[in-house]
Structures are given as structure tokens and as C-alpha cells.
Design a protein that fits this description.
It contains seven helices and two strands; from the N terminus they run ααααββααα. The protein is mainly α and 145 residues long. It has a single domain, classed as Arc Repressor Mutant, subunit A (Orthogonal Bundle), CATH 1.10.10.10. It has a two-stranded antiparallel sheet. Helix 2 crosses helix 5 and helix 3 packs across helix 4. The radius of gyration is 17 Å and the shape is globular.
């Protein structure tokens, strides 16, 4: 007999590809996009979006890269004005990174989920259903941290 957890995992595994394929765009390769950002850069932007991971070392550890590699990537994103940084008010030895408005636009433009396709799907849901979807995705994504 299959457990509830196993059923939930299987259901997510069956639902995600449907969403992904309905909204998917081709992946960017290297820094070949018009935004001059790679897939790795897009992943960094996505992780900076909610502000939970905002330090170089934290991001590097979470994404399983060396801090020096993350530093190089963050410097590139800062040079493109997609990310900005400031000294942490609580610990002035640390630098905090966050998305700029341009960074948010780049995140949306570089997402593997096409904005208009995703908008069309989400628009079919009521406000309450939209909130439930977002809440569920936040819970699932938040458990990865």
C-alpha cells in the first residue's frame, strides 16, 4: 500500500511537468542571452528575490559553489545593475545583496516559465485559488532552504 507521503510526492511529480511544459521556454546557454546572464545567474536572481538568502556565503553554500565563484557571479550581476548591495546594518562585516527593479525584470524575462503563458493559466483561477497556489509553492520552495 502506498503512503500518503508517497502519493503526494507522486502527485507533485505528475503535476509539475504539466505546468512546466505548458509554460516552458528554451533554456539560456552561457551568457548568450540578450540580458548577458546565464542560467546560473537566473538561479541566483531567483534566490535573491524573497530576501531570505542575501549573503554571498549563504548563497554559495545553498547553491553548492565556492564563495569565490558566487562572489564573481554577484559582481557580474551588480555590474549589470540587476543586483545591488549594502553593508548589513546588524553586522557591518557582511554585505547584503538584493534584486534591483531591473533584476526583477531580468528574473521574469529569463524565467523558463513564459510570463504570458503563466499569466493565462493563473488568470483562470479565482483570487483565492491564486493565493492557495502561491502559498503552496512558497511552502514547497521554502523547505529547500
Amino acid at each position: 500500500m502506498i503512503s500518503t507521503l508517497d502519493e503526494n510526492v507522486l502527485e507533485i511529480q505528475s503535476l509539475y511537468p504539466k505546468i512546466y511544459l505548458a509554460c516552458h521556454l528554451a533554456h539560456q546557454t552561457a551568457r548568450s542571452s540578450s540580458l548577458n546572464i546565464s542560467n546560473r545567474d537566473c538561479i541566483i536572481l531567483a534566490h535573491l528575490f524573497d530576501g531570505k538568502l542575501c549573503y554571498n556565503k549563504q548563497l554559495a553554500q545553498h547553491l553548492n559553489v565556492a564563495p569565490s565563484t558566487m562572489s564573481e557571479a554577484l559582481n557580474h550581476l551588480v555590474s549589470l545593475k540587476l543586483v545591488e548591495y549594502c553593508v548589513d546594518a546588524e553586522d557591518q562585516r557582511r554585505t547584503k545583496y538584493r534584486l534591483t527593479a531591473q533584476g526583477q525584470d531580468a528574473l521574469q524575462a529569463s524565467s523558463v516559465l513564459n510570463t504570458s503563458k503563466l499569466t493565462n493559466i493563473i488568470d483562470k483561477l479565482s483570487k483565492e485559488e491564486q493565493d492557495t497556489v502561491i502559498k503552496g509553492l512558497r511552502l514547497l520552495a521554502g523547505s529547500t532552504l
